[in-house]
Write a structure and sequence with these properties.
With 188 residues, this protein is an alpha+beta fold. The protein contains seven helices and seven strands. The protein has a domain at 11-18 and 58-179: Phosphoribosyl-aminoimidazole Synthetase, Chain A, domain 2 (Alpha-Beta Complex), CATH 3.90.650. The protein has a seven-stranded mixed beta sheet, with helices on one face.
Length: 188
């Protein structure tokens, strides 16, 4: 699947949830600092299994690809979320020659990620948009696919593509559109 097939009005979808791998990295970095200060200390990871596993054992979402095929749906464009959602939305839009509207209320974040972000005093939305390494799938589908995927437990519609002139915007809870900025990793 190419990044370049998205069209204005296509649904912008993501598999799974986001930000967990980044929070897992934060937990592991904290435990590393504890170990460096006291090599006898044992890591305290019991309450962080979900986020640590998201960091240490990412899984390719081939299940979603197969389910889409079984539903008779072919994405118009697709990219994996390895550099953060914001970065990947920007890549997909650039390749497709479109803009996008991403709704903050629709970005899926799992409860263990929310809990870890609160403990670390981090904004979970920022973790989901810029954390990376989640290896979920970001893809577009024609708007006609809405009825087939609207209640799918592993797919969330986070927005839609627009004309390129509309730019790539994040739409807040209050309905304000602000330019989406990618703060994730950038290749050389």
């Amino acid at each position: 699947m190419r990044r370049s097939g998205g069209k204005p009005t296509d649904l912008l979808c993501v598999s799974g949830d986001l930000g967990g791998a980044y929070m897992g990295l934060q937990v592991l970095e904290r435990e590393k600092q504890v170990f460096l200060a006291d090599p006898e200390a044992q890591p305290e990871l019991d309450n962080y299994e979900y986020v640590v596993q998201r960091q240490l054992r990412p899984e390719a979402r081939l299940d979603v690809v197969h389910e889409l095929r079984e539903m008779g749906l072919t994405p118009t464009s697709m990219i994996d979320v390895s550099d953060g959602l914001a970065s990947e939305v920007m890549h997909l839009c650039a390749a497709s020659g479109t803009g996008a509207r991403v709704f903050t209320d629709n970005i899926p974040v799992a409860n263990p990620t929310l809990e870890a972000a609160a403990e670390f005093n981090l904004d979970p939305l920022t973790c989901a948009l810029n954390g990376g390494e989640d290896y979920e799938l970001l893809f577009t589908l024609p708007v006609t696919a809405y009825e087939k995927i609207k209640n799918h437990p592993e797919i969330t519609i986070i927005g839609h593509l627009t004309d390129k002139d509309d730019a790539v915007n994040l739409v807040t809870k209050a309905g304000q559109a602000v330019p989406l900025q990618a703060q994730g990793w950038k290749a050389f």
